[in-house]
């Protein structure tokens, strides 16, 4: 089973939505908060090439942000990616 990692911020409504989607599908995830942690945000930016949160990975595959996660869920591939 692939590990899901989400870089997030406490005050980000898109982060909340992404975490709610994962929770609704009983998909466990590791959350890395970037609030007040510039080294974590720099790590996220270096890995993703993006500066906005959330940034989500399933295993080594970068999914992207909240809209990207919802697109994967709509395409019925989210569970398949997590199961790998």
SSE layout:
Layout: E1 4-8, H1 13-24, E2 30-33, H2 38-48, E3 55-58, E4 61-64, H3 66-74, H4 78-83
Parallel strand pairs: 1-2
Antiparallel strand pairs: 1-3, 3-4
Helix pairs in contact: 1-3
Pfam families: Glutaredoxin (PF00462)
Keywords: Cytoplasm, Disulfide bond, Electron transport, Redox-active center, Transport
Function: Has a glutathione-disulfide oxidoreductase activity in the presence of NADPH and glutathione reductase. Reduces low molecular weight disulfides and proteins.
Molecular structure report:
The chain is α+β, with helices and mostly antiparallel strands. The protein is built from four helices and four strands, in the order βαβαββαα. It has a four-stranded mixed beta sheet with strand order 2-1-3-4, sandwiched between helices. Strand 3 (55-58) and strand 4 form a beta hairpin. Helix 1 (13-24) runs parallel beside helix 3. It is globular, with a radius of gyration of 12 Å. The mean pLDDT is 96. It holds the Pfam family Glutaredoxin. Keywords: Cytoplasm, Disulfide bond, Electron transport, Redox-active center, Transport.
Can you count the beta strands? 4
Largest sheet report: 4 strands, mixed
Instruction: Give me the number of helical elements.
Output: 4
Based on secondary structure, the structural category is alpha+beta
Distance between the termini: 5 Å
- What's the shape? globular
| DSSP helix fraction | 40-55%
Q: What do the pLDDT scores average to?
A: 96
The helix-strand sequence is: EHEHEEHH
- Low confidence ranges: none
Portion of residues in beta strands equals: 15-25%
Q: Write out the strand line-up for the largest beta sheet, numbering strands in chain order.
A: 2-1-3-4
Instruction: Compute the CA-based radius of gyration.
Output: 12 Å
GO cellular component, one term: cytoplasm
Keywords: Cytoplasm, Disulfide bond, Electron transport, Redox-active center, Transport
Domain GST N-terminal: 2-84
Organism: Marinomonas algarum
């Amino acid at each position: 089973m692939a590990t899901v990692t989400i870089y997030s911020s406490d005050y980000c409504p898109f982060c909340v939505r992404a975490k709610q989607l994962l929770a609704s599908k009983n998909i466990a995830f590791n959350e890395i908060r970037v609030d007040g942690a510039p080294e974590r945000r720099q790590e996220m930016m270096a890995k993703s090439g993006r500066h906005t949160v959330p940034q989500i990975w399933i295993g080594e595959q970068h999914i992207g942000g909240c809209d990207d996660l919802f697109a994967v869920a709509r395409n019925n591939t989210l569970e398949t990616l997590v199961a790998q």
